[in-house]
Amino acid sequence: MTAQPSTDKLDLNAEFVRGLLRDLHPDLADLPIRFVSGGGDNALYRLGDDLVMRLPLRPWASGLLRNEQKWLPSLAERLPIAVPAPVRIGHPERGFPFPWTVSPWFAGTTAN
Q: What is the 3-state secondary structure (H, E, C) of the chain?
């Protein structure tokens, strides 16, 4: 069995996120970045007022994110409600082992 990648030892912070953006989406790298949430599955960082960057923290969460990257854009075109379809996609780099997504930020409250 091969070892699964992990983010446990990475120091995810606003500057790390800025570096990922600078490498792949430099037009977003100068937006204000602030940490929103870091549960066991994903870390969320706000990018300016209108975007959020989601970084999976576990291998299975990265699989779910890949499915969202594949299917949400076509669903968003067909649904009458706002869908957080990716506006940018990132891939593993800078020691971060998973793909990541930048999506629109929808204001609201947590369901629970």
A: CCCCCCCCCCCCCHHHHHHHHHHHCHHHCCCCEEEEEECCCEEEEEECCCEEEEEECCHHHHHHHHHHHHHHHHHHHHCCCCCCCCCEEECCECCECCCEEEEECCCCCCCC
Residues 77-110: tens digit of each pLDDT: 999 988 899 999 999 988 899 999 999 999 887 7
What residues pair up with 78 in beta bridges, in sequence order?
A: none
Q: Is the pTM of this model over 0.90?
A: no
Which domains can be identified in the chain, with CATH numbers? Answer: 14-104 (3.30.200.20)
